[in-house]
């Protein structure tokens, strides 16, 4: 029996724009099992990033329930939710979000240390991950010394440092040229080949990227539908 990694029940979210309310999500129901690579496809402005932020606990929904591995971060204290997020969820952003003053080795290791790993152990794991993503010769470089593709590889390594149950990827090739983007997508395929239990939820507005996933759903008019 598959393990349920993610469950959304009637998730609704809106923003207040002056005197008007903008409804973004209008009752999203969704489940994701361990080992799935699911792409949420949708046009720009459809609310994909908002949905991913809610799933990752960066925001709380106006109503509804979001459970990750059976736990509901929105019901936790702020500190407990942050610790849960650091341990259970790996984030890969379109804009990398690497700390510019640190080397990429330090960037990756820091994410482990924040989650409670001893820094020596986190550093060793970071070296292994950076080697796995093809950056063994670049570990002492700072983000500004790397190409966009190399920065995204470092960000992927960072997302894996705590062996998260769920990887969330927000348009991970959005800032890259097509050739470099394809290399990043091959890396996602490698991750799943090396660990079939790896669970990935990726958002995209690109049909070709969505077709690589084992499952695709569309966010349209505030709800998710099968494609």
Structure description:
- Helices cover 34% and strands 28% of the residues.
- It is of the alpha/beta class and 227 residues long.
- It has a 6-stranded mixed β-sheet with strand order 5-6-7-3-8-9. Strands 2-1-4 form a 3-stranded antiparallel β-sheet, covered by helices on one side.
- Helix 3 (104-114) packs across helix 4, helix 3 (104-114) packs parallel to helix 5 (148-160) and helix 4 (119-132) packs across helix 5 (148-160).
- The mean pLDDT is 93.
Radius of gyration: 17 Å
Q: What is the 3D form?
A: globular
Stretches where pLDDT is under 50 for at least 5 consecutive residues are none
Strand order of the largest sheet: 5-6-7-3-8-9
Order of helices and strands: EEEHEHEHHHEHEHEE
Number of helices: 7
Instruction: Let me know the largest β-sheet.
Output: 6 strands, mixed
**Spatial gap, N to C terminus:** 24 Å
The tally of strands reads 9
Q: Helix fraction?
A: 25-40%
Mean pLDDT: 93
Query: Class by helix and strand content?
Result: alpha/beta
Strand content: 25-35%
Short recap of the structure:
By secondary structure, the chain is of the alpha/beta class.
Topology summary:
Elements: E1 4-17, E2 20-33, E3 37-41, H1 48-55, E4 63-68, H2 78-88, E5 89-92, H3 104-114, H4 119-132, H5 148-160, E6 166-170, H6 178-194, E7 200-204, H7 207-210, E8 215-220, E9 223-226
Parallel strand pairs: 3-7, 3-8, 5-6, 6-7
Antiparallel strand pairs: 1-2, 1-4, 8-9
